[in-house]
């Protein structure tokens, strides 16, 4: 059962009128809107010690009065702890938190350092009260304004949904899903401090973002490890979207695909035997998005790596490359449309809500890690139950990826050096299989192109012949990589 009581969505610019009309219909004439001006000044030390301790301190001016708010967010806690108190003016009063548990953390974080204003928010807030289907009242607020600090500014256009009473949040989520079905929204952190700290990050072009190495504590439960893994996947995905839309680096597309694969692999690893209707929808949408990403990625690899590696540079090959480049341009447009659509925002929201559910895994390990890894190792050794060398290698590659992801997710349960020794030959195997898969994808692409455009058929046959020759040389590499992995001791 869901227990989160607050959710924030970023609304697209210029679509607030649609949001206002939708919420007004649900709220009714007696429940809003109420408009107010709000100013918040966020404090920290120069070395952001409060943020490193999971704390956020801000001063709020509302209705002509000041108050201070101290929030603590823990890694495992879903609901942040917040303490508020009134102030006589726009200056923090840290002594007011003395004697409280959160005050002790604050004192430790501040130490002998001075706290200074880091950034500020200026907002116009519109508030409605909506009655949920379960009878619970939902506070909906639309915040429009700016975040300023370090000589920079970010625009704010967020909608926040919050239950006015503690308890199950299904009605809140249902309302948010209705909004996401109408507008291309994106879930964002409710903590403005997370975005405020971005004001101090170096301004640079979007760059590829890799999955963060997770370090669960040695005593972490099975469900806790699962949560750490899967919560990294949406961050990994979304961090690469700006680079995809900017077309600054093809690696961003690859990393976004990796994020989706890691998400699906983690769910299959930790919750293998569980049925989940909500996940079925998420998995379908993840496959849809992966398909859009894959269409562009395959063409990127063919043009930038496969075709160049084939060593052909005749005029007819240039025409072939131009035709495929046109296909890539069309696929890029389809991908950009997908990433700015309501469907993508709805996928992110469903994933966010699914991650907020209770009961997403068992707590005890009871040999789970060793059994899961051994099951994937044995699957890799079995001959794929299909005909055709390319299909066999495709299944082999998928099985090897599942083993690698499982090893990465569960590495904290074992000796790190032993894990690295095992991953080295496994990654070598995946590299060989990856190059062979790229050639297979290129071969299929060329055959379709030759059928659709007969004038390009001679050039396509020339490249296919080169790819076939390269594959013959890689077969011994594949055999050596499999043999090396087979002779490497399993770390579990």
TrEMBL record:
One Pfam family per UniProt: CHAD
Matches recorded under InterPro entries: CHAD_dom (IPR007899), CHAD_dom_sf (IPR038186), CYTH-like_dom_sf (IPR033469)
CHAD domain boundaries: 219-492
Protein name listed in UniProt: Inorganic triphosphatase
Source organism (scientific name): Paludibacterium paludis
């Amino acid at each position: 059962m869901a227990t989160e009581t607050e959710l924030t969505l970023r609304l697209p610019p210029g679509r607030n009128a649609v949001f206002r009309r939708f919420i007004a219909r649900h709220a009714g004439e007696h429940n809003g809107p109420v408009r107010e001006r709000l100013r918040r000044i966020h404090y920290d030390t120069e070395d952001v010690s409060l943020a490193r301790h999971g704390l956020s301190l801000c001063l709020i001016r509302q209705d002509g009065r000041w108050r201070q708010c101290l929030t603590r967010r823990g890694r495992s806690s879903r609901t942040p702890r917040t303490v508020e108190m009134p102030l006589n003016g726009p200056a923090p009063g840290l002594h007011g938190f003395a004697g409280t548990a959160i005050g002790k953390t604050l004192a430790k974080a501040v130490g002998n350092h001075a706290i200074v204003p880091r950034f500020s928010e200026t907002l116009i807030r519109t508030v409605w009260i909506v009655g949920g289907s379960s009878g619970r009242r939902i506070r909906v607020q639309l915040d429009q304004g700016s975040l300023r600090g370090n000589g920079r500014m970010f625009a704010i256009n967020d909608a926040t949904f919050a239950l006015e009473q503690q308890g199950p949040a299904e009605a809140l989520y249902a309302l948010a899903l209705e909004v996401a079905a109408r507008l291309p929204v994106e879930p964002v952190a409710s903590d403005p401090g997370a975005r405020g700290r971005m004001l101090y990050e170096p301004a640079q072009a979007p760059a590829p973002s890799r999955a963060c190495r997770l370090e669960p504590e040695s005593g972490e439960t099975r469900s806790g490890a699962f949560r750490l893994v899967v919560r990294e996947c949406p961050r990994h995905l979304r961090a690469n979207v700006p680079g995809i839309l900017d077309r600054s680096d093809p690696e961003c597309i690859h990393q976004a695909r990796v994020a989706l694969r890691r998400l699906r692999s983690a769910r299959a690893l930790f919750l293998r035997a569980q049925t989940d209707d909500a996940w079925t929808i998420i998995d379908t949408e993840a496959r849809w998005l992966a398909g859009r990403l894959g269409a562009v990625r395959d063409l990127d690899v063919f043009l930038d790596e496969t075709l160049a590696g084939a060593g052909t540079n005749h005029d007819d090959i240039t025409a072939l490359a131009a035709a495929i480049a046109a296909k890539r341009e069309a696929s890029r447009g389809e991908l950009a449309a997908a990433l700015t659509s309501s469907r993508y925002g709805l996928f992110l929201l469903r994933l966010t809500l699914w991650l907020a559910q209770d009961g997403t895994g068992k707590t005890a390990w009871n040999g789970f890690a060793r059994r899961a890894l051994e099951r994937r190792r044995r699957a890799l050794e079995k001959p794929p139950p299909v005909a055709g060398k390319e299909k066999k290698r495709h299944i082999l590659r998928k099985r090897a990826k599942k083993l690698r992801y499982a090893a990465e997710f569960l590495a904290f349960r074992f000796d790190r050096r032993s894990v690295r020794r095992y991953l080295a030959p496994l990654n070598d195997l995946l590299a060989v299989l990856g190059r062979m898969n790229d050639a297979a994808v290129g071969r299929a692409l060329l055959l379709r192109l030759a059928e659709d455009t007969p004038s390009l058929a001679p050039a396509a046959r020339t490249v296919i012949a080169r790819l076939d020759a390269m594959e013959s040389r890689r077969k011994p590499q594949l055999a050596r990589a499999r043999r090396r992995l087979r002779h490497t001791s399993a770390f579990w």
